Amino acid sequence: MNMRSFSLAELSSPEIGRVAASAVLVLPVGAVEQHGAGLPTGTDALVSAEIAHRAAAPLTGVPVLVAPVLPYGSSHHHLPLPGTLSLRSRTLLAVLGDLIESAAVAGFRRIVLFNGHGGNDDLIRQAARDAVLDLPIAVGAASYWSLGGDRLAELAREAGITHVPGHAGAFEAALTLALGATLPAASSSAPSSGPVEPPREPAYGFAMEHGWIARMGGVTDPITPATREVGERLLDHLVTAFTAYLEAFARDFQR
Question: Which GO terms describe its biological process (predicted)?
Answer without folding.
Answer: riboflavin biosynthetic process
